[in-house]
Each structure stands twice: as structure tokens, then as C-alpha cells.
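Hi V.,

You were right to ask for the full record rather than a summary. Here it is.
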Amino acid sequence: MKNCIPILVLLLGFKFFLVSCESEKSIAINEQVTTDKGLVSGVFDSQSEITVFKGIPFAAPPVGDLRWKAPKEAMAWQGVKVCDTFSASPIQATPVPFMMWTQEFIAPKEPLSEDCLYLNVWTAAKSAEEKRPVFVYIYGGGFSSGSGAVPIYDGTEMAKKGLVFITVNYRVGTMGFLAHPELTAESPNHASGNYGLLDQVEALKWVQKNCKAFGGDPNNVTIAGQSAGAFSINYLVASPLSKGLFHRAIAESGGAVLGSSALARGSNLETAEEAGVKFAESLGASSITGLRAKSADEILNGRGPGIPIVDGYFLPESVGEIFAQGKQNDVPVIMGWNQDEGFGGAPVPADQFKERAKQLFGDKADAFLKLFPVETDEAAFALQNDLGALQTFGIQSYKWMQLQNQTASSKVFMYRFEKDVPYAEGMNDYGAFHTGEVPYAYNNLKMSPRPWTEADSKVAETMSDYWVNFAKNGDPNGDDLPHWEACSPDNLKAMRFNAETKGAELPNIDLLNFLDNFYSNQSK
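Predicted structure:
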């Protein structure tokens, strides 16, 4: 019998080895992953070696009585949830291409639904022990449109470079941002509105609970967004509700630290509630119960309030006040804007622009025109292009940089994207237009049929390398890249992305200083 014991132990050990291998195989990331709510399976691409999980629920569907409520946790499920298809995008007007934004820049036409709180994950990790940097991308669309399924947000290339890449959906328009006295009264937080931003917080909580299962590191999360997504990043950096949920931030063309636009100023809760009451009355609803009984199309077609507000909960104060007091989340930031954002209206000749300047700057118009004379139409057109880029976007980055340097310790890295985006035959040339940097930053030129050149590919590789380096360690610099200096009021340097990417002086400083002074004094 004694002689049998070693053989028995060996057999038992071999059986344990087989069971262990089978167990490891059953949880391989390229087959299925265990989340806090249940098992999910994705799609493994053998060519890229990336596994994609599309349509993972991170919150309960915000429908019925949950319409206009803070997101609730998703329900657990039995078995394996197959996550191989993007979820519905949030309720919005039917997405169609317009101006410079061709199909790859916008959400799929369908499906659209209130049941939209899902996210998507791209990972090259093979096990849950790899601790890869996690990158969460938040889409733009003026808080009225957008989707995590937009083609240029695809995460394959960034996952190839070592990130666990995630896109999230959030409610937009009136579904995402309606305030109303009854909603405030029923809320345990004594606030209403900002549901779309609370969706983003809920998604980041999901990331903290689950990213490790996809090979990610919950202690190294970068949030990034463009346009409304960049405004969202600014709000999240300011909000106490997102403390500890992320560690770095990237804001491409957006921010709300200075009241240079209605979106940046934001209504207070009382004003937003009044607008909500008027909206309900316009649809013949005397109560929130009546408004919740309306169809999604009725709400959409009613064109109600649909932008973030200072609600006293997600934003206890305005973003500018939070930053000025040093109450923001102190994290490293990349921020910047595009040379030809395309805002500010159609350019007008010099004589007409001088009149427009009076409307823009009132009694400061003469001082403005003295600093920035426009004696020719060409000079007027150039100045209007700069103003269009700076008033909504550039000035926000500039002011955010100043406040970060004054009241926080983390570094700021600034950029301007200047590369003309190629256009196909029959299209207009919009230059380095709003959103034009996104396919470069995420190395996704392949998602667009535009006539890309070798110079475009070089910019895309360089820009995405900076973004990946930043996600890894909070600093964009790395081997074989032009050195990117941190920006401060004493060192106004930026990375200028063009056919030749290089560090240089931050552009338009005189104009930025004028706008900063003008809007800062307006808010006092």
C-alpha cells in the first residue's frame, strides 16, 4: 500500500494540473470574462490579437420610472452574455453626415434607444494579471448626439499599443439634462439635471470594479474626450463625485472654466428647473409623471433643455470657482484645440467685422481692434478663424492651464492640432477642423476613406504614441518623439501637430490674453 501512495499523489497532482489548466482556459480573456454582474464573451481577432467586447451594460436601462434619475446598477445575469454587437446609441436626432463630418465621424443611424447605458472594451491582454493602463473615451456631440460606436473611436490600435481601451455611452439632450422641481424633490441628492454626467461617473465606477478582469489596472485610469467629451472631462476633473475614479485626463477642444459661451457658463439649478417646467407645459404635461408617460420621440421633438448645469451636487459650484479654490481632482492633463475649429459663423469682410466686433466685445471693441487691426479682408478672415477656434475652445484650455498651475500640482501639457485633414473630391477644404484630430490621436485613419498621405500616417503614429505614453505614466514624452514641455504661465509652450510635429510657443497668446481678461471681468 505504501508504494501506491506516491503514485496516488502523482495522479491527484496531475488531475489538479489538468483542472487548473482547464480553469485558466475557461477564463482566458479572449474567450470570456467574469464581471461583477456575470460572465461576458467578446470577439477575438486573430490578426490583431485584440478581443473586443461590445455592449456591456454598466447601469440599468434608464426607462420608465428611471427616466431622469441617477443611473442605477445593472442587474446581474445568468450564463454568458454575448457582447459582440454595439448597443443602441442614446436617443437623438437621426445621425446623418453634414459639413466636414462624414459618416465615420458620427453615430450609426440606428438603433437609437433610451436603453443605451452600455460600454465597449478593446484589450490585447491574455490574463487579468497584466495591469495595463486603462483609457476611457467620452464622445462629443454638443451633449445632443454621439455614441461609443462612432467608427473613429475604435479602440483596436490603442489596444495594440498596450491600453485597455473603453468607450462609454451616456444620455444626451433632454433625456440627459432635464432639471425640474419635482425631479429635485424626488432625488435623495436634492438635485436634478446632469444625468448624462452621472452616467459617466457610473461608467467609471464600473471600470474600477471590472477593468482588472480585462487585464487593466484600476489604479491607472485615463479619461479622455473631445468637444462635449472634453467639456465632460473638465466637469469630471472638477466634480467631487469622481474623486479617485481616474488618474489622468485629456481634453480635446473643450472646457468650462470660463464663461465664454452658454455651454461653459451653465445655468444654476433654479433657472434650469424653471426651463424644465416650461418644457413640460409645452408638451401638455402638468407633472413629471405626465412627462415620463410621453414617448421618447415626443421628448426629442419637444426640443427641451439639454446641457449641463451647476446643480449643487455633481457640480457644487461653477467649474471656474472649483478650480480657483483648488477643489478639483489634481491629475495631469493634456489639453488643446484645433487651428480651424470652424465656429464663430461665416467670415465677413473687414468693414462688417468691425461692426461685429462691437457686438462681441461692446465697449472693449475699440481696444480689441487696436490690438488686432483688420485693414484688409484677408486680415479679417484670418482673425475670425482664430476667434472661432479660441472663443469656445482655446480660451478654455488656456484658462484651465493657468488655474491648474495656480491651485494644483500636476502638470499640464498643451497642444494645437494644425494638420489639414484631407478631403475627398467634391468636398470642401475645412483645414484642421473640429474633431479632425480624433482619427490621428487614436491612430484610426483606416476608419475613414479620405485620401491619407504618409505625412498623415506619421502624425497619427506620433500623436497616438504621446496619448499612450501619457496614459502609462502621466507624461507624453518617450523615445523617438519630439520633446513635449509642460505648459505654465512662465513657460507657454505647446506641441504643434502638423506635417512636422514640434514643440513651440503656444500660438495666439496675445489674443488669448485679451479674451481671458474680457471674459474674466465679465463674470465678476
